[in-house]
Amino acid sequence: MTPSKARKWYDIRWYSDEETKEDRKLIVRLDLLIVPYAVLSYWVKYLDQANLNNAYVAGLKEDLGFYGNELVQLQTFYIVGAVVGQLPFMFLFTYVPMYYLIPGMDVAWGIFTLLQFRTTSFAELAAYRFLVGLFEAAFFPAMHYVFGSWYRGDEIARRGGIFYIGLSLGTLTAGLIQSAASATLEGVHGLAGWRWMYIICAVITIPVGLLGYLVLPGTPDQPNRKVLRQQDVELAIARLHRSGHVSHERFQWRTVRKVLLTWHFWTILLMDILFWNAGIHSTTGTFLLWIKSLGRYSSSRVNQLGTIAPALGIFYTLAVCFASDLLIGPAWAITVASVWNAIGLVILVIWDVPDPALWFAFSTIYASVALSSVLHGWVNTQLRSSPAARSFTLVLINTVSQSTTIWTPLLTFKTVEAPRFPKGFAFCLATAVLLIVVVHGLNSYLKRAE
């Protein structure tokens, strides 16, 4: 790829200078096919993942008699399912068309989201959470594999950033749905408001999954012919080849040996582990549990107020991802997000501060996940010469990193320690600082290698 001429920081463009008219038409077509569906699907993924925390503070805890660490244990069952479910996808990405694979997972997790409305015990709910996690497992690396199959390294982060606002939108919407369900559907047809939330979430999820089969373009080697012409595919392959991307390669077991014998891979893995653990306070319900502990608000109002943090997360995600592609690059974008996360965590570690300071601290927590698309887009770019290595690495680092969050919340975010979580906030702060160190170590190595 020919470097673009240096521009002023305010001269922001969607395309690079060397794109032809045909290239730009293709990019627009891909953007319209991939990005809106990615946002929708990630939205319903986090709608279905986050609804447990909202249901817990809206009556599930009392209805099912949960007064110990059941919440964090149910969160762990989800993660176990997500880790186990990812393992086959290390090689399936290069064999099964993505426009079948991703929508199929969407529909399956929608079905098990629906079944949660009928739960009557911890064991039943734990089984459903495991199965939701199992089918949601590969969605995130799968979408990044699709992004890396069509876009260059300097194009991925901002598309990934728009995609990633689905996380914040899902968490935010889950709170609003639960608030509305608690306020208007409590007792309708004999069902509690939190049970209605699971029904509503499933009704949203399943059609989104079916839509993916019709709009997702797949990958250049396995394109969806319903939405792309052969000349579109050939043009996409040509523009990627100009910047060193390889578009077709099947996974083989020798790929595993090749990847695992490079220290570069282990640095990426460490970076991803730190990323996942620096943000576990955003998924363990800390903000909602603190608001509920204040004793000032109804269940409906607690869920409404809990949307503040994910709403700010939308801004954080877009700012960090666009800055990465267009201004400061991935290493510094990750640094900015991690520093903002760390500032909030310092306040939460101190804890004995006025309430406005705690409101501010909790408002920073989604900075911890805002950098995700930058980090994984960076990995995509580093492995652009091998689709098989890219597939294996994206899934493996996600699997191993997420597997660490099976046990770290159990140790550091015990529900009985809410809302203070003295070990949890300190742990997240330490990993956020270490993440900055590792990122700049990797960035220095890559600059020397170039």
Automatic annotation (TrEMBL):
GO cellular component, one term: membrane
Name by which UniProt lists this protein: Major facilitator superfamily (MFS) profile domain-containing protein
Matches recorded under PANTHER family: PERMEASE-RELATED (PTHR43791), TRANSPORTER SEO1-RELATED (PTHR43791:SF15)
Family listed: Belongs to the major facilitator superfamily. Allantoate permease family.
Subcellular location: Membrane
Membrane topology, as annotated: Multi-pass membrane protein
InterPro entries according to UniProt: MFS, MFS_trans_sf
Family matches, as SUPFAM superfamilies: MFS general substrate transporter
Keyword line: Membrane, Transmembrane, Transmembrane helix, Transport
Predominant location category: membrane
Any Pfam family the entry gives: MFS_1
Gene Ontology MF, one: transmembrane transporter activity
Transmembrane annotation, as ranges: 76-93, 130-150, 162-184, 196-216, 260-282, 302-324, 331-351, 357-379, 391-412, 424-446
Taxonomy, superkingdom: Eukaryota
Organism expressing this protein natively: Xylaria grammica
